[in-house]
Amino acid sequence: MPRSTAVVLPGTGSDEVFVRSVFEGPLGALGVGFVAPPPPPGDAVVTGCLGLLDEWAESVEGPVLAGGISLGAHLAAEWALRNPDRCAGVLVALPAWNGDPGEAPAALAARASAELVEREGLEAALATSTQGVAPWLAGELDRAWRRHGDGLAGSLRSAAAHRAPELHRLRALDVPVGIAACVDDPVHPVSVAHAWAAALPRASVCETSLAAFGADREALGRAAVLAWLRALTAGPSRP
């Protein structure tokens, strides 16, 4: 396994605390260095996260294992396409769309959340958004949204508008990519994960479920890391 440090980015409206709970244990078990930078504030989240990957790639020894959850996964793949010589692979957890976000469920949810925050304020938006959801998810939203503060709505809108790598562009990404998907997640459809894998030259998908994820946050991280190891050892799938 190549020497590398994993730099893993959070998803829309999330934070590095959540990323750490998902990936730190599984990567640590492999002896891979781990960095989970806080998300840049407001509508700078996209450019800021790409800049963070640039900064860490300059400061660590060896190639970077770029990774992320949802939006963070899109940005990690985008960065890898721009920097193949500095990338040891990509950890893609819960990809939400490819190309234009359009009416993708995750983009619709982010837009609706931004509108709710702007219209009702943070407290009311949290009360509405956490009603009836699993307690672990309600807790994550409550912590992360408060940490985003006044920049939350801008961050949500920026994420919802950002193009993910198109499938035809993913065909040029010749590094091992591990993709994790929850088979019962309507916001991050498992079909998107398999479409990414079919387009990538060296990719594997490992599936888990929201129930497993809810009981153990590392279930998602283990799935992504296992898929990456499979892609790493399998070699190119196409000439």
UniProtKB/TrEMBL annotation:
SUPFAM superfamilies for this protein: alpha/beta-Hydrolases (SSF53474)
InterPro entries attached to this UniProt entry: AB_hydrolase_fold (IPR029058)
Highest taxon in the source lineage: Bacteria
Protein name from the UniProt record: Thioesterase
Naturally occurring in which organism (per UniProt): Prauserella flavalba
